[in-house]
Amino acid sequence: MLELKNIKKYYQVGDTVTKALDGVSVAFREKEFVAILGASGSGKTTLLNVIGGLDEYDSGDLVINGKSTKKFKATDWDAYRNNSVGFIFQSYNLISHLGIIDNVELGMTLSGVSNAEKRQRAEEALTRVGLREHMHKKPNQLSGGQMQRVAIARALANDPDILLCDEPTGALDTETSVQIMELIQELSKEKLVIMVTHNPELAHQYANRIIEFSDGQIRDDSRPYNESAQSDTFKLKRTKMSFWTALKLSFTNIRTKKGRTFLTAFASSIGIISIGVVLALSGGFQKQIDETQSKTLAQYPITISQQATDMQAASAENPNKTKKLSKKGTQITAKVSAQEKATHINKIDQKYLNYVNDINPDLSNNIGYTRLVGMNLIRKVDGKVQPVTFSSAKSNSSNQSSAAAMAATTGVGTSSFPKQLDNSKENFLKKNYRLLSGAYPKAATDVVLVVKSDNTININALNNLGFDVKDGTKLDFNKIVGTKIQMVMNNDYYQQLPTGNFIPSTDVSSLYDKPNNLTLNISGIIRARGSSNMDLLASGIAYSDDLAKEVISKNQDSAIVKAQKASAVNVMTNQKMDSTTKQTFLSTLGGSSLPYSIMIYPNNFKDKDKVLTYLDKWNKGKSRADKITYLDLAGTVTNLTGGLMDAITYVLIAFAAISLITSMIMIGILTYTSVLERTKEIGVLRALGARSRDVTRVFDAETFILGISSGLLGIIIAELLTFPINSLLYNLTELKNVAILDPTQALILVLVSTVLTMIGGHIPARMAAKKDAAIALRAE
Ligand code: ADP
Ligand code: MG
């Protein structure tokens, strides 16, 4: 049934050629117990490996059941080893991380035997070798003899035709050796058993044929067999390992080295950790930057004022020119100051206002206007009518009589809230301010009281509104909400004296019921939302730009405005005025429909640049005097933080990339080490008929497990790290919750870890698969 024809196998190392098999010709019977005796190094193991298809022969032919193996492909050899041959080694070669039953089942697993049948056959085989009670142990819980019995059971389980035993008793004591020999002898009654031994006594006692072997040649054969084997139909079932089996094999292997696997996963998760942290941080920082940007932009909007400083003109001042003026001599030189030279009057007209109003609402949703309009306000306090103002400035009671003068002297802050460019979007107040009491303003005549984050309010704002409060006085919301204020029109408010001068009416109570009055209503109390970056409004009364516009439209043609337009001096005080002062005063009286300044609040710095480009377009081709300059205080901050953040991001990304590469290399090395370490196991798997692809699978499965666990471990640690990082950052910068790991990013990271790990481990896995099975088995 098995015949070797002039088989030669030479090993060449350097210049020396070892003739391991030097023309071996021998035939074996279907059932016999052949013992091969020979000195160490004579080529016995090589012979067994060649017979078992673990090692290739150089020349000659191995004929199995009449079929030449010259044209055998790798898969044919795999199938042959799995179906027809059982190996028993001196060093047992059990896979230590698998249980005894699993070891026995492994060969059947490879040939695709069903689970139930596998278990049954494994139990039968183990019973046969007398290990029924030890079935559920691990190999390292057995004695040497018992382990060899397991190896025999493993060889038997797949019911092979040939049993190849390489010094099976070499590591056993005499008593155990005898037991094993008896077992093998019994098996030889139904199979061909070829046993290599260097113990002639045992050989002579149990074997029925003895072959003396030396220097790769058969010296003596006690019972030669010359009958040429007849050609049977020789069919072999292909072997195949499922990925699931590979996964299970790797999993049990990994489980036996929990500590090391954990360390490995931890080490290779460092890359994932660092990327996770970088992502969490950069995402968080981006959010912070966006917030800071809109905060900065809320504080420093693009401002277009009627009076601006032309930065270019200011810096154009050439110091070299002034040098030419002599320091000596007897003359002085009159000089306009640099600051004054740089003062630029922006001619803001309706056309420009329309241009600004056309800014893309996606870039900037809010535009604020400052109008120097004064409001003539009176209120009934305890039945007594008294003048009031919306100002938060400290005022002398004597001065309070002229609200208009008040506004002119204190200047007007941002008491009117920004106009919402895009009406479809949320209202500015609702978005940025929380309603504490009452209602958000609906009509133009609805005004709101803005309080600070701690519900305090500037005492002057309350006093100016006619509330008699001292430092620390508490007022109920309902005392304020619903308060009615009368706004008196100029023609009712100002009286013209016979001299032609105008003075505010002294009898304020008579003004209270004038039909032209606008009744203003404090509709609610609001406070900036914690999340809002746009808390533009100072504490005190805030009103809509529509109200300001309405006052202007009503007062534009009033007597005092007309008179003031015609006069070079102040119509109230007769003071002389230059054109700027006159213009300002006219505005205060409601005589100008144009705002004093425009504040544009872009959403972020990028959008700000686009808005600036848009504003620059207006100036194209215009003369210097007609140009409209803006103030961009936030611009100076942009360049600073922008560049810095870019640099930091690049550094972080570089770090993350380095750790990713490092962890990939590490996985490669670890898989390689694992390959080296499991060389024996590879040999055993191959001896049991595993294809080289199956071996690759085992290691791929291992790196798969490793990749997933290091990915999971990585994101868990990264997530945990965000807590100390956040508290550290909070201590350093007062920024809350900067690092936040995005779940989608976390999932992607696990995937990346798995894929990269598998890539890193695949090369060593392929190396493992290519390993020569015979060499693998010789490894210690
Ligand atoms: P035995 O089992 O009889 O002790 P072996 O079959 O293991 O002998 O080895 C036979 C000879 O072949 C020895 O001289 C050994 O050194 C040599 N040999 C075996 N395998 C290799 C190999 N992979 N490369 C080089 N020489 C080898
Ligand atoms: Mg040997």
Automatic annotation (TrEMBL):
Question: What SUPFAM superfamilies does the annotation carry?
Answer: P-loop containing nucleoside triphosphate hydrolases (SSF52540)
What keywords appear on the UniProt entry? ATP-binding, Cell membrane, Membrane, Nucleotide-binding, Transmembrane, Transmembrane helix, Transport
Predominant place of localization: membrane
Name any one GO molecular function: ATP binding
Q: Which domain of life does the protein's organism represent?
A: Bacteria
Q: Which Pfam families match?
A: ABC_tran, FtsX
Tell me the ranges covered by the ABC transporter domain, including all copies: 2-240
Q: Which InterPro entries match?
A: AAA+_ATPase, ABC3_permease_C, ABC_transporter-like_ATP-bd, ABC_transporter-like_CS, MacB-like_ATP-bd, P-loop_NTPase
- Record's signal peptide: none
Where does the UniProt annotation locate this protein?
Answer: Cell inner membrane
Indicate the transmembrane segments per the record. Answer: 262-285, 647-672, 703-725, 745-763
The record gives the membrane topology as: Multi-pass membrane protein
Q: What family, per the record? A: Belongs to the ABC transporter superfamily. Macrolide exporter (TC 3.A.1.122) family.
Kindly give the PANTHER family that the UniProt entry links to this protein. Answer: CELL DIVISION ATP-BINDING PROTEIN FTSE, LIPOPROTEIN-RELEASING SYSTEM ATP-BINDING PROTEIN LOLD
Its name, as the record gives it, is ATP-binding cassette domain-containing protein
